Amino acid sequence: MKLITALLGRLGRQTLLIMAVIGRIALFAAATVTHLLRPPFYAREFGHALIQIGWLSLPVVGMTALFTGGALALQIYAGGARFNAETVVPSIVAIGLTRELGPVLGGLMVAARVASSIAAEIGTMKVTEQIDALTTLSTNPMKYLTLPRVLAATLAVPLLVGVGDAIGIMGGFLVGVGRLDFGAGTYLHNTIDFLETWDVASGMIKGAVFGFIVALMGCYYGMNSGRGAQGVGRATKAAVVAASVLILASNYILTELFFSA
Amino acid sequence: MIELRNVHKAFGANKVLQGVDLTIPTGTSMVIIGGSGTGKSVALKCVLGLIRHDSGDILLDGKDVTRGDRDAFLARFGMLFQGGALFDSLPVWQNVAFRLLRGSLKRPRDEAREIAIEKLRRVGLTPEQADKFPAELSGGMQKRVGLARAICAEPEIIFFDEPTTGLDPIMAGVINDLIREIVTEMGATAMTITHDMTSVRAIADNVAMLHDGVIKWTGPVADMDNSGDPYLDQFIHGRATGPIEAVR
């Protein structure tokens, strides 16, 4: 009985801790969004964040999409052969990439690259009193550090997803034509014919949500970083883990919203 | 004038400030001394609103610092942080002119740069340092840049957090002299926290000794050596024995 009580107690404490973190993150997100509506807006910081998050993530997202598109073409071809349905390769590659794999893998790659970098940067700023210095210089850290990054990621990741989709489809095309003996014209024709605008748009909406999550987690854990190198290391790890889990969870919810019958 | 009246602050069970009473008259230089972990930095951060005190009053010119326009309040302050707290991503001149490049004190970029270079010169740095990044400077130079940033917008009140920590004795002397000169020529009110007794004698008009969360002694720096206070005596002479327990 004592053991059960202890276990339940521990479970209860953990649940309360998790709920408290969720509450704090929700308040942090609300504070970030409300700063969007109030001046000043630091355009220079926003531009810098746009380059760091969007432009500099393009190589890693592009490479991920290229290889995923190629591998997907091979898998669908092999699987489709069981049902004599090899011809569906171009359309399934396109639909799979634009609706699901493009945004999710792109989001996860951005989470690994950007959430970690934001958390480490802001965490180090906190440890070295740069956040306090910002405040004493009459500059709100939420406005100067968080809002530009969150806004830049929310706008940049959908574009990354769009570019990633195109590169991924090209990866499938290269494998389809080079390895699976599809005609180039037929492959492209099948891709375009079966792809709908909503397939692409839904993936880009997912990208915007994932971008928001990635930057928000980076900023939240950075701002709440513990002391010293260990504190910053923990904040960085927590930001990547939280961003990745939230991307996968929100992907399911968005898929339910967009595509459930 | 800055007044702290019965200020309390605790972090969980750790009661750091337990009724701090302190007055810093306008245009004077107050140095707060005390052992590590006695709450000197906490007291300073409470005045600036970086940490919210639990109870008591902190007044600036008779007005509660927690009320009113926060930007206008902070615009009256300059602060030199212990580690400099320079922004790594910005060149030196943009660190110095940070306040002049944005917000209510915003100036044209060229003018802000000129002012920054003039302030850098005031703290003994050449214009060539202006376009470097903080990581390219030595510790002493970073401290000077921090000092230039603290005085760039000509604040009425300047806070110095351990201004000589980590510097060699000569550079510490240079920083002490600069602080004294700048505070005097600007007519600013200064509040410094330090362990360095050389700094205390160079910078202070008045001294306050913080121990066990309260001010144990306060008075003019000239009276410090003859205070008769056992806590202050032990601290300024660096004795291992006395009323302050030293953890060995």
TrEMBL record, chain A:
One of its GO terms (cellular component) is ATP-binding cassette (ABC) transporter complex. Pfam families: MlaE (PF02405). One of its GO terms (molecular function) is phospholipid transporter activity. Its main location: membrane. It is a multi-pass membrane protein. The chain crosses the membrane at residues 16-37, 49-74, 150-180, 200-223, 235-254. The keyword Cytoplasm does not apply. It is found in: Cell inner membrane; Membrane. Keywords: Cell inner membrane, Cell membrane, Membrane, Transmembrane, Transmembrane helix, Transport. Could be part of an ABC transporter complex. Belongs to the MlaE permease family. PANTHER family: ABC TRANSPORTER PERMEASE PROTEIN-RELATED, PROTEIN TRIGALACTOSYLDIACYLGLYCEROL 1, CHLOROPLASTIC. This is Putative phospholipid ABC transporter permease protein MlaE. The lineage of its organism: Bacteria, Pseudomonadati, Pseudomonadota, Alphaproteobacteria, Rhodobacterales.
TrEMBL record, chain B:
The keyword Transferase does not apply. InterPro entries: AAA+_ATPase, ABC_transporter-like_ATP-bd, ABC_transporter-like_CS, P-loop_NTPase. The keyword GTP-binding does not apply. Pfam families: ABC_tran. It comes from the Bacteria. Residues 2-237 form the ABC transporter domain. GO terms for molecular function: ATP binding; ATP hydrolysis activity. Keywords: ATP-binding, Nucleotide-binding, Transport. This is Glutamine transport ATP-binding protein GlnQ. The lineage of its organism: Bacteria, Pseudomonadati, Pseudomonadota, Alphaproteobacteria, Rhodobacterales. The gene is glnQ_1.
